[in-house]
Amino acid sequence: MSSLSASASLTHTAALARLGHALSDATRAGVLLALREAPAYPSDLADALGVSRQVMSNQLACLRGCGLVESMPDGRRAWYRLADPHLAPALDELLRVVLYVEPDCCDGDGCTCS
Predict the structure, then answer these.
(1) How many other C-beta atoms can be found within 10 angstroms of the C-beta atom of residue 64?
(2) 95: which strand partners?
(3) What is the DSSP string of 27-76?
(4) Is the pTM of this model over 0.85?
(5) Among 21, 30, 68, 91, which residue's Cβ finds the most Cβ atoms within 10 Å?
(6) Mean model confidence pLDDT for the chain
(7) Which helix (H) or strand (E) holds 105?
(8) What does the alpha-carbon distance between residue 50 and residue 59 come to, in Å, rounded to a whole number?
């Protein structure tokens, strides 16, 4: 095994799995990309991404559960921001990565590669 301890490796694996889960949905990925630019209210995110307020609420709950975003109270409303300042540059780096994907391999419903 590498110099990472087994527990650190499991922690890192779990963290990457949470990020992967968050990025596996186009709406959640869009939220993360929008929040890397600036904090926003859920209604503004819903409008920008073309989804209902209910869909946005569900996606933000998922992202909160993954520990990637946090809500900040603002009177009767709340706005959202990325939970960690390291996340914005990490997303920027991911955007710089160019991957070759077989057009018929992954259709959004799961990978059919064999």
Answers:
(1) 14
(2) none
(3) HHHHHHHHHHH--B-HHHHHHHHT--HHHHHHHHHHHHHTTSEEEEEETT
(4) no
(5) 68
(6) 87
(7) none
(8) 13
- Specify the pLDDT at position 95: 85
> Which domains does the chain carry?
17-92 (1.10.10.10)
- Checking if the pLDDT of 3 tops 60, the result is no
- Residue 7 in tokens: 């527990």
pLDDT digits (tens, 9 = 90+) for 25-70: 999 999 999 999 999 999 999 999 999 999 999 999 999 999 999 9
What would the mean pLDDT of 101-107 be, rounded to a whole number?
A: 62
Give the length of the chain: 114
> Token pair for residue 1?
């095994």
Whose CA is closest to 69, among 77, 54, 55, 57?
57
| Cα distances (angstroms) measured from residue 103 to each of 30, 39, 94, 112, 114 | 21, 34, 20, 11, 14
